[in-house]
Amino acid sequence: MSDCQLPWSGKRETERGGIILKFLFLCCFVAFLIVVYLARHPLLRVAGGGLVTNESPRASDVIVILGDDNYNADRAVRAAELLRAGWAPRVVASGRYLRPYASIADLEQHDLRDRGVPASAIVHFAHRATDTREECAALSQLFAERGWKQVMIVTSNYHTRRAEYICSRLLPRGTDLRVIAAPDSEYQPDSWWESRQGVKIFFYEAVGFVVAVWEMRHNSVQTGRLFGFATETQRSQRKPIG
Question: Is residue 71 part of a domain?
Fold first, then answer.
């Protein structure tokens, strides 16, 4: 009789073991969720900071403001600071056309002059680019025509990582590129999740970076620097003009 009960007994043991494993897995999963919840702010700060790269300024041929600047003209403010500090003799106001007779470049030019940049130091560059990739391609032609090799690009903090990735692959070969972050009133890397606009910006940029990586998967880096690491020679040249 006991021999006849062995198969059923084994089945019950297997079922009991499966239940225990499922319970342990559930406990581990719940514990993981608790840890993630408790560490959510540090994790969100790391994610928010991942969009940002901010390099030290260096003596350059030109400073470039990428369009579109925000309502407070934060990019223009940072570019004006760099020019007044003597890091470059000129600044490019780059922006797309809004109408046949008006462009973002016009607004940036106005913002720069309001912040003490002389008109003679501003290069007005209006174009029909609809995204960062097209704008960098247009700027690449401008740099080649003017012979500018040392370039500082100023853009909003959240846009710097994507802008660096794209521009490093589209600017003329050998260009010494630096990307300077302009603090943005609409995006704080340490607390972006606390505002609706911050959340929108974060996810837009995160998706945009993934798209850029996919679209440019066959493009190699052409600039003289890779993802913020300078050579010893370049470090020694970090002196303002004048």
Answer: yes
pTM of the model: 0.80
Q: Residue 229: pLDDT above 50?
A: no
Q: Is 87 exposed, middle or buried (0-12, 13-18, 19+ CB in 10 A)?
A: buried
pLDDT per position as a tens digit, 206-217:
999 999 999 999
Three-class DSSP category at 175 = coil
Q: How far, in Å, are 87, 146, 184 from residue 69 at the CA level? A: 21, 24, 10
Find out whether 72 and 156 touch, Cβ atoms under 8 Å: no
Nearest C-alpha neighbor of 83 from the set 175, 149, 152: 152
For 166-200, what is each residue's pLDDT tens digit? 999 999 999 999 999 999 999 999 999 999 999 99
Q: 102-129 pLDDT, tens per residue?
A: 999 999 999 999 999 999 999 999 999 9
Range of the domain at 155: 62-236
Q: Measured between alpha carbons, how far is 13 from 219 in angstroms, rounded to an integer?
A: 58
Residue 35 in domain = no
What CATH number does residue 171 fall under? 3.40.50.620
Q: Are 223 and 176 in contact (CB under 8 A)?
A: yes
Q: Are 53 and 178 in contact (CB under 8 A)?
A: no
Instruction: Classify residue 11 as exposed, middle or buried by CB count within 10 Å of its CB (0-12, 13-18, 19+).
Output: exposed
* One-letter amino acid of 70: N
